[in-house]
Amino acid sequence: MEGKLVRLRGYERSDLEAIMKWINDEEVTQFLGGEILALPQSSIAEMKFIESAAERPALAADRSLVIETVADRKYLGGVAFHGINWHNRAAGVGIVIGDKSYWGRGYGSDAMRVLMRLGFDKLNLHRLWLHVYEFNQRAIASYERCGFKREGVLRKERFHKGAYYDTIVMGILVDEYRAMNP
Ligand SMILES: CC(C)(COP(=O)(O)OP(=O)(O)OC[C@H]1O[C@@H](n2cnc3c(N)ncnc32)[C@H](O)[C@@H]1OP(=O)(O)O)[C@@H](O)C(=O)NCCC(=O)NCCS
User: Fold this and answer.
1) Backbone phi, then psi, for 40, in 5-degree steps?
2) Cα of 57 from ligand 1 centre, angstroms
3) What is the pLDDT of residues 89-143, one digit of tens each?
4) Cα(6)–Cα(153) distance, rounded to whole angstroms?
5) Mean pLDDT value of segment 20-49
């Protein structure tokens, strides 16, 4: 599925090389959740991630997709739905652009809009939510631009470089999405 700048697609084994370029880069991973990225990752673990992401059934609770450029099909990073809850029709979302030279140029917001389109228009979800650390102002600006609202704060939840920081909970409901995308 395509936006203005990026396309979301399934993982391929050939993505491994591009993933290994950022997966151990703390400038990127400091913003990501999941304790697994606190320690160095091997290419073996990443290949397993690729294979499990590619093999997940259509209605699995977690779905991960690659972000690639429309212009030249260059791998930029990934997006995911986490813990899709089919009863509440809600899902957590996550995003990373691993190639730092593409930060702040609109690619992340475009990828998030495509992910929202998938979540609301294809999967028929009702609510998307995410967690973002207070020191990740670029991400917060991007999410607000996409229509996410601040819903709450998990106080001093994130340990980062010797101090604790707030985690901000953001979310968007399908009606808000439809109002923005009539
Ligand atoms: C978060 C991320 C996906 C956003 O994608 P992006 O392509 O960089 O973001 P965009 O260019 O679409 O939008 C960034 C917004 O932040 C603003 N911005 C850029 N640099 C900023 C900075 N240092 N501080 C605050 N705002 C900043 C931009 O002006 C833009 O806002 P605007 O459209 O209102 O002007 C991307 O930066 C990324 O992958 N970062 C590392 C991993 C990460 O943080 N993942 C999210 C975890 S919750």
Assistant:
1) -60, 140
2) 31
3) 999 999 999 999 999 999 999 999 999 999 999 999 999 999 999 999 999 999 9
4) 31
5) 90
**pLDDT category, 33, cuts 50, 70, 90?**
confident
Distance in Å, CA 55 to ligand 1 centroid:
30
Q: Where are the domains of the chain?
A: 6-180
Q: Which residues line ligand 1 (CB under 6 A)?
A: 28, 31-32, 77, 95-97, 103-109, 132, 136-139, 141-142, 145
Strands (E), the chain: 6-9, 63-69, 75-85, 90-97, 127-133, 149-160, 163-173
- β partners of residue 97: 77
**Section 150-169 average pLDDT:** 96
Q: 63 alpha carbon to ligand 1 midpoint, in Å? A: 22
Which option is the CATH number for 6-180: 2.40.30.20, 3.40.630.30, 3.40.50.10470, 3.40.50.2300? 3.40.630.30
What's 101's DSSP letter?
Answer: G
Percentage of the residues of the chain whose pLDDT score is greater than 90: 90
